[in-house]
């Protein structure tokens, strides 16, 4: 009788893990519904200070066709070019 609850728990854990694994693999992510980068948080208050962007890979595509490493690099570049480049989408440019 003691093995019965263990089997139920094992079965439930396996079902949950299987669901999580397969839903992550087959589900397409809709990046158009994500909010645009909030560039104000990456712009330093002192104009002479250089922004220190994190070394995180989360690609951002800009209107000039350039893929930036993450939204911080995009925001800094956008500020340097006086907002002539615009946010297109999250992910690599096509």
From TrEMBL:
It comes from the Eukaryota. Keywords: Disulfide bond, Glycoprotein, Protease inhibitor, Secreted, Serine protease inhibitor, Signal. The keyword Glycoprotein applies. It holds the Pfam family Kazal_1. Residues 1-23 form the signal peptide. SMART domains: KAZAL. Its main location: secreted. It is found in: Secreted. InterPro entries: Kazal_dom, Kazal_dom_sf. One of its GO terms (cellular component) is extracellular region. Residues 33-94 form the Kazal-like domain. One of its GO terms (molecular function) is serine-type endopeptidase inhibitor activity. May be a serine protease inhibitor. Essential for sperm maturation and fertility. Inhibits sperm acrosome reaction, protecting sperm from premature reaction. This is Serine protease inhibitor Kazal-type 13. It comes from Pan paniscus.
């Amino acid at each position: 009788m003691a093995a019965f609850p263990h089997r139920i728990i094992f079965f439930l854990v396996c079902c949950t893990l299987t669901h999580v694994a397969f839903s992550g693999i087959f589900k397409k992510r809709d990046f158009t519904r994500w909010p645009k980068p909030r560039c104000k948080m990456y712009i330093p208050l002192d104009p002479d200070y250089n922004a220190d962007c994190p070394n995180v890979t989360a690609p951002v595509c800009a209107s000039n066709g350039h893929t930036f490493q993450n939204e911080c690099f995009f925001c800094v570049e956008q500020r340097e070019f006086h907002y002539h480049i615009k946010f297109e989408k999250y992910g690599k440019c096509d």
